[in-house]
Amino acid sequence: SNYRSHSVSDSSLRYPNNRRVGKGGVAILWHKKYDPCVTPLSIDDDRIVGVQIELYDLFYIYLFQVYLPCSNYSIQTYREYIEKLDDILSTYSDNGMVIIMGDFNASLSSTKLIKQDGCRSRSLTSFINQNSLIAINTLEICNGARSSFVSYDGSCESLIDHILIPVEKIDLVSRVKILDDEALNVSRHRPISCSIKIPFFYLSHPSVSPHINWKKVDTENTNLYQCTLQNDISLIEMENSIFQSSSDIDNAYELVTCGLKSASENCFYKTEFKKYLKPYWNTELSNLHKNMKQLRRLWIAAGRPRTSQNCHYFNYKEAKRLFRKEHRNCVDKYLRKINDDIDNLAEVDSGLYWREINKRKKGNSDAGCEINFNGNTVRGSQNITDQWGCYFAKLYKSHENVNFDETFKTYVSSKVIEYNNDNSELSSEHFYPVNIDEVKLAVNQAKKGKSCGYDGIFYEHILYGGDFICKVLSCLYTAMLQYSYTPGQMKRGLIITLHKGSRKRKDNPDNYRAITLSSVLLKLY
């Protein structure tokens, strides 16, 4: 009476005319005191049941209990349920930690028992490997009996009951045990008990500040923006000032960035960038999905027959197969396009950039994020960010290489010393200042819609600034060229990590593609 449950039974029991003998069902039980954090999920299947558990703010666990078809059913039916688990995993894994447990009716090998290889075992193993899962009851840390099922005559035993968790969560498992038979257990299946430690950390989701909506800029906004810049006393003084040291260049760069951002915030519309779950979705996918849903309703109305000779069942499965195939193709094309843009341009468009940023800063996906750095699993956005810093610092650091060309290094070093021995300032007869026309030419070749760097300046800040801001930049660039100096803040960039996809493990830092967003003022220079 102190427990609640979420369960489903054999669908054949719903029809009074059938023989009232079914395969049973699946259920999840929890104590009533956990009612506020447990939400039953609607899976619409008589072999799978699931609940959502909110442990604390924005940290979710999705728990699924399954009973997959036994050997009395065809291997095709078994594979259809594996596909269903694959769909469930792809739906919920982005929102939190997914645990799938139950009777899989497929034997896996463990440290104590070698599996009996078969079609079901191969299908389950393929599903586990493709989704970076692991059956914790097959590991060395599992104690107790070596098998989870023993035949009624005791002639054979197997490990067909499993608890599957993401492989990157293996360090959270503190105890696993297959309980031996006892008097109260009337089933030939042995219970599997496990304990999982849940890391507690406060998820920091800094709000992304509104950015300028450059698509809504009109003539009135542009004129007001240019007028504001022309009345900026700091920029006017910088236009006529004489640079005498590198510190003057640093100050000038800071004045330019602050002036541009201050004027744009007062003159242009701002907007929040939204996160899109499926940017690859298209009309063809919508039509295939709609057709699949219509055929599924007809199949349900016909009593859910599962024989390949039935036209409703065949048509529904064929429509589902076509939709899944096209869906995967669209996802692959989308990921390839992102990677190609990164490889070719070394930058992404502004919309894509902020979608990727928002994916890491908002929503529930951070609850399931962890990365393994040098054998240590790191969780929490700030801890992961710190470890990424160490990772890239080590990656870009000089190190010994057996193929290093010492002769070429000596040659380059001598040339560097030779150049450095010359005067730091170019003599007037060899120095040509950067004029405003050169800056305007470079600005006009800049493309809109590109991401900003660490300083928050977009190309649009310069494009809508007019001749005045080009003249200011010509003064700054002239000083940088004359003193052979680039401000340190201008050289700072934002490193964004994007997962390479293709079902690669998300806890391995080597499976991420790094892009650096540089300052547009530096690129113009």
How are the elements arranged and paired?
Elements: E1 3-9, E2 25-31, E3 38-41, E4 48-56, E5 59-67, H1 75-92, E6 97-103, H2 119-130, E7 133-135, E8 142-144, E9 149-150, E10 157-158, E11 161-166, E12 173-178, E13 192-196, E14 211-212, H3 219-230, H4 233-240, H5 246-267, E15 270-271, H6 283-301, H7 311-345, H8 350-361, E16 370-373, E17 376-379, H9 381-395, H10 406-421, H11 436-444, H12 459-463, H13 466-482, E18 494-499, E19 512-517, H14 520-524
Parallel strand pairs: 5-6, 8-12
Antiparallel strand pairs: 1-2, 3-4, 4-5, 6-11, 7-11, 9-10, 12-13, 14-15, 16-17, 18-19
Helix pairs in contact: 1-2, 3-5, 5-13, 6-7, 11-13
Provide the descriptors you would attach to this structure in a database record.
18% strand; 525 residues; three-stranded mixed sheet; 14 helices; alpha+beta
Can you count the helices?
Answer: 14
Radius of gyration: 31 Å
Strand order of the largest sheet: 3-4-5-6-11-7
The average pLDDT is 83
**Helix content estimate:** 25-40%
Strand percentage: 15-25%
Question: Main sheet, how many strands, which sense, barrel?
Answer: 6 strands, mixed
Shape: elongated
Distance linking N and C termini = 74 Å
**How many strands appear in the DSSP assignment?**
19
Low-pLDDT runs of 5+ residues are 202-208, 359-368
- The structure class reads alpha+beta
